[in-house]
């Protein structure tokens, strides 16, 4: 299978152009204003799947955003790989921090990517990584190298909690039958340090609203005598962590898996430079839970982060207003064996209980997902490991990520197969941030590595 | 002087229409986009002053917004009243909470104002109250009832801290010479409980910025390991008050005037119903500093209020971002003998000192002003008291307000005269809030009362 490299070399420009076309459509699932762009993106993915060699591809309606399903069945007795990805993207704001418009993809050279990187919202997360699989399929079908069956399930609600994928999986259960689920929606340690993600954190995302008086008040006339929702909300949020940055919600840590010292020591062997980390982020110090390293804080420990907060006057200049309402979006990343529904309930009860008299508090659960950990002794993991060896010349490092793909634990439960997370993104890709980008090198390396996975997975499954 | 009532009766509609015209111009001093509307408003005020009988009126340039100066000198040996007011208004946001557009004045009947109230930004604060003085002058000049000299100083930066009025007062010191300064920019207790404001709180207004990493981060990948500016800012703000709602900034209370028990008992005699207060604001409980009543918390005690706060994703739906920056606008209301410049410095030092490692904090002072208290045994106060008696049939109650007119203490210092605060607004006028309004009854009552002040002030000054 040396020809995959040649094939990429021949079709380089087209592979980039096709991805750029996809990136131009603002498929922002969080904002209802982009509903027709969502459908347009789904249709485009469907067409690309057919062109890449699928026998069948459909834009399937759901109670939410449509899911693109595609398949190429070569022999029912051979194994089946189910590729999962998503065509929706995060909102691009704050827009003024982008160096180029988020939906006008451009390729620019960077320090990390001297070969160039594609800058656009969704470049890495997940249009770029999803499209690697489409192009890998194209190579395999055009060169008679597809060794097994393949199915695609590309959804449009990953960035908003995959609310209706549950419904889709149950409805399409038979058609989705597979032997392994392959996902590229994570990262790797470095360009020369390949890694396979073996764990993901769970998520509970809530929105809170604190109401004081029934209208905005003059802060001179009422200040000091009436609860100020912004002061109160700050105090409430401030109290959710103690002086050691432990989360204070009663019961929050009850089910947190405690890693053995041996496991923690093994984790500490992963290549990591605190100095480089600080330097890249331009911070004088890291910040987190006492008693845990930066790598541990970002993977095996749960968190509580305010993702957005607002209230009162936020324009230019000064306005002496005592606002009627204050809001925050808060997410908690969860680890095995925390149950996101239980944590959401714990948060809600605690938050309501700490509200002082004089304000009313509403907690609105947004979405969530279970944490996920996968063993490394499976056929799927072994096949992935060998694929990386073939293209990177190195054995990949198993790594637990701090991110979440809330739906992953559901896949395992409903579809009864293991999930393999082959991510080709880098830390510096700025996913969910302004100037998201994906290295051209990484994009091609993904396309190159994926067919090897199919080959080894089929072989090891014999 | 019974004819003032008749005069108002005859010119009612015109008095309302003229005020409405003024209210249509969006003179928002906080927003540079309204610069030409500011000038337009100043020009309109100048013309109205001339029409009302001034000998001279000018739009005077300053390093900031222009000040309108006007005068009618009838005899140099007679006393001179200097009227101060402002033609700028607060920003109208949040716009969606207005029942009618803020710059399209309409008269609507309300429970408190069965005679109707004018709804518009600035209706009470301060275009409506300032214009009462213009119409009172018109009555006096047209009916040969002006007993003394009058000067007007109507500025355009009151809502943003009167930054350049200092310059204006020093520059125009001679022309501004007067025997008493008359201001209608406060309220009274109720329509049947007239009151004169004898104290104003000072103000220190600052903006704070907390920066974590150099860019927005993915809260899954970095959450728990890097300082989140919103979590940190919440915690910092939360720590600025203790469990008794005392402000924790070292030195903050050092110069606070402690009222005697006698003075506090006298204050407690003012008519006030906690039930009505709660009901009007739709709150289950008041909230404030332990050991002080609601009236005290809102007048003789200093405060710390967040007037606006923002950071991260504040759009629809969910975005799992760990923001790079978080902001808050914070104002402190001050009481005698706190020095706003000293308090601003104390705040800055304290706020910077409590910032944890991993974030950078900037404190930007906005503006401020000194608190003000005036005695009630002056000629000006006595004249005002008699004027209210003439039109309300009741002796007004001296009252300390929680609001601030930062420039007032400067007037006393530079112009060496006493300030009389005859306010005709009500608590429910929603100044600085959506649906600001000013009772038609209050507007006319102000126009009716003012000429009596001139009469008694001239008489008592003999």
UniProtKB/TrEMBL annotation, chains A, B:
The keyword Metal-binding applies. The keyword Hydrolase applies. Coiled coil: none annotated. Residues 199-358 form the Peptidase M20 dimerisation domain. Keywords: Hydrolase, Metal-binding, Protease. GO terms for molecular function: metal ion binding; peptidase activity. It holds the Pfam family Peptidase_M20. SUPFAM superfamilies: Bacterial exopeptidase dimerisation domain, Zn-dependent exopeptidases. InterPro entries: Bact_exopeptidase_dim_dom (IPR036264), Cyt/Met_Dipeptidase (IPR051458), Peptidase_M20 (IPR002933), Peptidase_M20_dimer (IPR011650). It comes from the Bacteria. GO terms for biological process: proteolysis. This is Peptidase dimerization domain protein. It comes from Christiangramia salexigens. The lineage of its organism: Bacteria, Pseudomonadati, Bacteroidota, Flavobacteriia, Flavobacteriales.
